[in-house]
From TrEMBL:
Source organism: Microbulbifer agarilyticus
Residues annotated as binding heme c 2: 209, 212-213
PROSITE patterns in the record: CYTC (PS51007)
UniProt cofactor(s): heme c
Subcellular location: Cell membrane
A GO cellular component annotation in the UniProt record: plasma membrane
Keywords: Cell membrane, Heme, Iron, Membrane, Metal-binding, Repeat, Signal
Entries under Pfam families matching the protein: Cytochrom_C
Protein name according to UniProt: Cytochrome C
InterPro entries with a match to the protein in the record: Cyt_c-like_dom, Cyt_c-like_dom_sf, Cytochrome_c-type_DH, Membr-bd_ADH_cyt_c
Signal peptide start-end: 1-27
Residues that hold heme c 1 according to the record: 61, 64-65
GO molecular function term, any single one: oxidoreductase activity, acting on CH-OH group of donors
Co-factor note (free text): Binds 3 heme c groups covalently per subunit.
């Protein structure tokens, strides 16, 4: 009798216990969902969504999360990651199955600032969470509101990454983050103006200029995250063939000689007569992002850039101050091209220039009078210490559309072989990348 009631008693305890546990889990779920729903209700506001939209432009989420010819934000853009392979960006539309429609604010925040996906896996730093770590709580909320309520769902699954099995483990990223990610939101410097602080925030955080413009270390970690550490924006590694120059205010190594007006014009249009044009990833950043930002934000960025510690590097002359008008092409001009296109001929570079470039950039290299076709003299890309961007501009061409107006230079990748490219580049550098009034023999 005693034994059987003991048994019944234990049975009841276990039964009640499990019922309670089940109820608790269910209630927790319902409560969590209710809490998330009420948070979401609070975030589904037109002003917040608009703020988030603007931030998404400043942060250029579109650039990486849209495949060529694909739906905006549906992901699938291929990105070549050094040492690893090819990575495809995620779908970040509000689709629940293939996008981030089912994500909570906390999950979104962790992906943006810590580089952790919904399922807890570490994201590759091709997603610039190292910079986005600086985005404030308020701005994260606005971005979340925009992506969840302002972006229509697109049901599309990006292709699987092409990374060798051996290298595809994500756990090393955990340690990489531990060592190299600052991971704290931006804190204003009370000694500086509001404009300076706004500029600092945009440059370091959402606009992620440092991802391209800051030098990297051995395992590809950024050497600085803000102006308090030397090297911030002092020139980045070569990515997809393009090099992002030193943009610290050093008058020789960086952009110290640019006026605030020139810097503003560059960031808004990508073109400053007799100084610089934007190609490659900078053209994209201007087209998608900077050209669509408020004037006051661009002014803030300029204020900040002109005040960070200057870094010189190993350059002796500002890259925008070099070059002489070419004269030899004028002499060659009357001769038929076929006569002496000879790889051993010294003037071959000049001939290539005359054949491929002079129609737009002028026989002497000074461009067109109105500057539409830029001068190659005193040109920051031609005068740069390394010829990466000059080669890329020739191979890929340039294309930027700002306010509906397209600037276009054709690419020449299929028109010349490596040997000809080398001769042309040598010629251009001997002519337009040497100190003024001191022409060297071309091709020596
Ligand atoms: C420079 C390129 C780049 C930019 C700019 C960028 N992303 Fe990403 N993002 C990626 C890549 C690549 C991945 C995938 C990383 C991986 O698979 O490890 C990713 C992953 C994500 C994820 C995780 C998705 C998932 O399913 O795990 C979210 C969320 C995200 N990005 C949101 C954003 C938002 C919001 C912005 C703008 C504020 C942004 N990204 C800007 C490249 C970028
Ligand atoms: C995705 C990479 C990338 C990002 C992000 C980026 N840049 Fe650039 N930037 C470049 C490249 C590449 C060039 C060289 C373009 C060329 O030679 O045509 C460049 C050139 C420049 C130049 C001209 C320098 C010169 O001497 O010609 C300035 C100024 C500049 N960037 C400022 C910025 C600022 C400010 C930001 C952030 C708001 C930024 N960039 C973000 C890649 C980037
Ligand atoms: C059809 C006209 C045209 C031809 C031909 C042409 N270019 Fe250009 N080039 C342009 C235009 C337009 C731009 C961009 C101007 C701008 O960005 O505002 C440009 C830009 C450049 C730049 C600046 C790139 C940068 O990233 O800063 C260089 C360097 C250059 N061209 C060199 C050459 C060379 C070398 C050749 C011959 C192989 C050549 N161009 C042929 C029209 C032309």
């Amino acid at each position: 009798m005693v034994r059987s009631s003991l048994w019944l008693y234990s049975f009841l305890i276990v039964l009640v216990g499990s019922l309670f546990a089940a109820w608790h889990a269910l209630a927790q779920d319902i409560w969590d969902e209710a809490a998330a729903a009420s948070v979401n209700k609070e975030l589904n506001r037109a002003d917040l969504i608009e703020k988030g939209r603007y931030l998404s432009v400043a942060a250029d989420c579109k650039a990486c999360h849209t495949a060529e010819g694909g739906s905006v934000y549906a992901g699938g853009r291929a990105m070549h990651v050094p040492l690893l392979g090819t990575l495809y960006s995620s779908n970040i539309t509000s689709d629940i199955a293939t996008g981030i429609g089912g994500w909570t604010l906390q999950e979104f925040e962790r992906a943006l600032r810590e580089g952790i996906g919904k399922d807890g896996r570490n994201l590759y730093p091709a997603m610039p969470y190292v910079s986005y770590a600086k985005i404030t709580d308020e701005d994260i909320k606005a971005l979340y509101a925009y992506f969840l309520f302002g972006v229509a769902p697109v049901h599309e699954r990006p292709p699987a990454n092409k990374i060798p099995q051996l290298l595809s483990a994500r756990w090393p990223l955990y340690f990489w983050n531990l060592l190299f990610t600052p991971n704290k939101p931006f804190e204003p410097n009370p000694q500086k103006s509001d404009a300076w602080n706004r500029g600092a925030y945009l440059v370091q955080g959402p606009a992620h200029c440092g991802e391209c413009h800051t030098p990297r270390g051995l395992v590809f970690q950024a050497k600085a995250f803000d102006e308090t550490k030397k090297g911030f924006l002092a020139g980045g590694p070569v990515l997809d063939g393009w090099e992002a120059y030193n943009i610290t205010p050093d008058p020789i190594g960086g952009i110290g000689k640019w006026t605030a007006e020139q810097l503003t014009e560059y960031l808004q249009t990508g073109h400053v007569n007799r100084l610089a044009q934007a190609g490659g990833s900078m053209a994209e950043a201007i087209e998608n992002s900077l050209a669509n930002m408020h004037d006051s934000d661009i002014a803030a960025i300029v204020t900040y850039l002109q005040d960070i510690p200057p870094v010189r590097g190993r350059v002796r002359m500002p890259r925008q101050s070099l070059g002489n008008p070419a004269t030899d092409v004028v002499i060659l001009r009357g001769n038929p091209l076929s006569r002496d296109i000879d790889p051993r001929k010294k003037a071959d570079g000049a001939r290539l220039y005359l054949g491929f470039c002079a129609t737009c950039h002028g026989v002497d290299g000074t461009g067109s009078k109105d500057g539409y076709y830029p001068s190659l003299i005193q040109n920051s890309t031609v005068g740069a210490k390394d010829d990466h961007n000059l080669r890329q501009a020739i191979l890929e061409g340039i294309s930027r559309t700002i306010d509906g107006e397209e600037k276009m230079m054709p690419g020449f990748a299929d028109k010349m072989d490596e040997e000809q490219l080398k001769r042309l580049v040598d010629y251009l550098r001997a002519q337009f990348a040497v100190p003024p009034r001191q022409t060297r023999e071309p091709n020596n």
